[in-house]
Amino acid sequence: MATFSARIKMCRRLGLIDETLYLALERLRDLRNLSAHSISFDDAKSPVREHLAELRKQIASRSSYRLTKKRYFDSTNLQAIEEWQCLLLTLCVLLEMIRGKVVPTSGNKSALSIAAK
Questions:
Q1: Is 70 part of any domain?
Q2: What is the pLDDT of residues 84-112, one digit of tens each?
Q3: Which residue from 20, 83, 106, 107 has the highest number of Cβ atoms inside 10 Å of its Cβ?
Q4: What is the pTM for the complete model shown?
């Protein structure tokens, strides 16, 4: 799986992530694509503003976000940049937890031989 999109979808289909995290990762993917394919990236303009608001909504309601905020950020009223740092750190921690739970296998040999053809 070469694309971030394919990886996100596979994680959702395998039940590794819930719907909210799936949507948040899709939003992050959209933001990445907007920033990678634009000369300018303005968080106050549409559609970036809407993507950021949706990402904030999907992550800020999670208990893991509140825990990250409590552990790593002193203020209860975060500046905008600190809030984004906290949101992204929360996503990183969640993804690392998922990665740690996934056990790599050598795969099913007959399925791999069919896929190789």
A1: yes
A2: 999 999 999 999 998 888 887 776 777 65
A3: 83
A4: 0.78
C-alpha distances in angstroms, 113 versus 20, 103, 105, 106?
Answer: 36, 21, 15, 12
Identify the domain containing residue 89 by its residue range: 4-100
Residue 115 lies in a domain: no
What is the tally of structural domains in the chain?
Answer: 1
Place of tokens 């099913």: 108
Q: Where are the alpha helices (DSSP H) in the chain?
A: 4-13, 19-36, 48-60, 63-72, 80-101, 109-116
> Is 111 contained in some domain?
no
In the structure encoding, which two tokens stand for residue 58, read together?
């999907």
Residue keyed to tokens 């208990």: 63
